[in-house]
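My current task is to audit a protein record that another person submitted. Thanks in advance; the entry in question is below:
***
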Amino acid sequence: MQQIEITVDALPIVKSSIALKEKLLNIKAKNYLKRLENFEKIHKIKSAEFAKAFAAGKLGDDAEWFDWLFVCEAYNKIIQQKKIIKGLSL
């Protein structure tokens, strides 16, 4: 694990910046999750199953599939970032 040095004066700024980022990620995650649930409801398939089928070329090139894939990837990236933040020790 890589460590960085933060001065005592800078620590409150870093903590508040991370807290703000975490709040924004939570809002984005909720919005993307709602969109994923909407896709799943419309197409009656879970997003993970959709992603596998799309990657296998079983769904074609409809723009909606690319939208769904973007939302899946964006949501997963946000979840990864949230895990990183939770793992920080300041």
About this structure: Residues 51 and 57 are 10 Å apart (CA to CA).
